[in-house]
Amino acid sequence: KDAPYHSLPVCPTDLHPAWCKLMEQDYSIILEEFLQLCRGNGDDNGESVSFPHHWPVVGGGAHRQGAGSHDGSVVNSRGDWRELVLFGSGAISREAPRTRDWIRKHAPDVVELAEQGGGEVIFSVLAPHTRISPHCASTNLRWTAHLGLLTPQDAKIRIADSLHQWHEGKVLVFDDSFEHEVSTGNEMRAVLLLRFFHPNLQSTRERSLAIQKALEWKQVEDSRRYHPPLV
User: Fold this and answer.
1) With contact defined as beta carbons under 8 Å apart, do 168 and 151 qualify?
2) b/e sequence 1-11, b meaning 16+ C-beta within 10 Å
């Protein structure tokens, strides 16, 4: 992998971007819209939340013009991984308007990265008994944040050598160029996933070069995946 900047597998909370703390404070706005999109019977009490089978399958590719098409290959045959894209390839602009407005206002760098093709913001949902096998990103030019929405205790993520859990209304920040894997138990797990620039990338020029490099690495990855070397 390409890891030009120093980082830790999991970012300590005191080093989180400032918008992470604000997001935790305004978490109820995001949770309410997520439940509205996920709710099975249309009630307003939030008590009937069913797995969103009507959402696109992660790795399906069609809704994202092929972006992320390899992601489905890391899901076990018994599992199910669905997504609703708010920013980035395949975004549905009419969904979750308050959440989208909040992100534009408080985390414009997240939107910048997504709109330049280097990241995305998605509601990510895993069905019960889903396992995402070990994998890692090709570069650490961007980091990942998860805001916990539905966080059963038996849902876990291993990042490098440490096992972690999500917590409702709390943000977990990690460098996904470190190997990581995910598993769920008897309940579905849901997060709001956001990508953002590595904190060492501050200037517009640095970020533009980083995006260009990330896209180049993606092309290399795709080429290796679909055109493996002859042996």
Assistant:
1) yes
2) eebebebebbb
Beta-bridged to residue 173, according to DSSP, are 145
DSSP string for residues in 1-43: -B--S---SB--GGGS-HHHHHHHHTHHHHHHHHHHHHBSS--
Residue stretches of the chain with pLDDT short of 70: 1-4, 40-48, 61-72, 217-231
Given a contact cutoff of 8 angstroms between Cβ atoms, the answer to whether 179 and 134 are in contact is: yes
How does pLDDT run across 59-116, given as a tens digit for each residue? 875 665 555 555 667 899 899 999 999 999 999 889 999 999 999 999 999 999 999 8
> How many angstroms separate the CA atoms of 62 and 55, rounded?
12
Phi/psi of residue 113, nearest 5 degrees = -60, -45
CA distance 194 to 87: 9
Strand order in the sheet with 171-174: 81-87, 121-126, 189-197, 142-150, 171-174
